[in-house]
What we know:
Number of helices: 0
Organism: Myotis myotis (Greater mouse-eared bat)
Region (Disordered): 137-160
CATH architecture of the domain at 19-103: Beta Barrel
Pfam family, one: Hyd_WA
Distance between the termini: 45 Å
CATH topology of the domain at 19-103: Thrombin, subunit H
Shape: globular
Protein name: Tectonin beta-propeller repeat containing 2
Radius of gyration: 17 Å
Structural class: mainly beta
Order of helices and strands: EEEEEEEEEEEE
Strand order of the largest sheet: 1-2-3-4
Largest sheet: 4 strands, antiparallel
Amino acid sequence: MLPAWITIEPPVQPAGVTLVSVHCSPNDQMLWALDSRCNVHVRVGITEEMPVGTDWDHVPGLQACQLALSTRTVWARCPNGDLARRYGVTDKHPAGDYWKKVPGHATCLTVTSSDELWAVGPPGYLLQRLTRTFSHAHGAQSSPTATSHPEDLEDEWEVI
Length: 160
């Protein structure tokens, strides 16, 4: 198949509202977009057989001026600098379930394919979000720094 641009209809929008940015996951399984009113949209129906997807869905819950996608997570920066993560995103449910704000403010952010979140925070410091991953298996920890104490689950940032 020869390389070509395929026109994809944008989400249905009120007059004067247009897409301003588009964001793809590193594994090409997620496509998200922002419009000129900071509304968030996700492309649904992306499969091996239909890599361009079938439609756009509005993702409610917050307004964003920047998105960052890993292979499994969507992060958003709100116009006021707040940061949020979208939970419940799966291949079958690309819009996910809800946004959850995380501590901190940023002027820009990026995420690696393995879900390491980086940001520039005020006043220009480089930040990396520290996270811990826990296994569902009883007593098993999937991270060497993981602990089973609930008080240790607070979200933290490391100033670099």
